[in-house]
Amino acid sequence: MHDKKIDWKECCSKKTAKSITPDLNLIESLKKSSENKLKSSDELQMNETTSVSKFILAYDSLREALEALASKKGYKIYNHECYTAFLKEVLNQSNLGDEFDEIRKVRNSVNYYGKELSVEDSSGLILKTKKLKEQILQILKE
Predict the structure, then answer these.
(1) Is residue 6, in this structure, part of any structural domain at all?
(2) Is residue 68 part of a domain?
(3) Which one of 51, 55, 111, 123 counts the least CB within 10 Å of its CB?
């Protein structure tokens, strides 16, 4: 896995992020979809079989909240790494960017490299993901 940090300028120059006009209907739709994915994650019983699925649903919920926030701020972001740059450089929320990047890397290793998570690991990651999503929704309200 390469681990070179992508910055916001690179995201924009490579067109993995671009300026848009905020779309209020899209923002509301993303918030609703984000909420539904988190509810789905919560409704699944936690066990060896479901733990990774619960985490992936929680991650998708977070990513959709981030997409709503980016849209509100006038950006469309096409890759998950650029959400890290967006949080750090556009919103000046370095801690949130680091937290998201940490969660994103685990999700990538699960999705693309077959990494397995224990029930305990998944539980901790889901908690972290939910906390970060709450912070993102708070910024979205401002």
Answers:
(1) no
(2) yes
(3) 111
CATH number for the domain harbouring residue 68: 1.20.120.330
CA 2/CA 12 separation, integer angstroms: 20
Other C-beta atoms lying within 10 Å of the C-beta of residue 89: 16
Answer yes or no: are the C-beta atoms of 64 and 34 closer than 8 Å: yes
Number of domain units in the chain: 1
Per-residue pLDDT of 43-97, as tens digits, reads 999 999 999 999 999 999 999 999 999 999 999 999 999 999 999 999 999 999 9
**The tokens of 6 are what?**
């992508």
pTM, two decimal places: 0.94
Domain residues for the domain of 105 are: 14-141
Please tell me whether residue 6 adopts helix, strand or coil conformation: coil
- Please report where in the chains the tokens 């509100």 appear, as a residue: 72
Does residue 75 lie in a domain region? yes
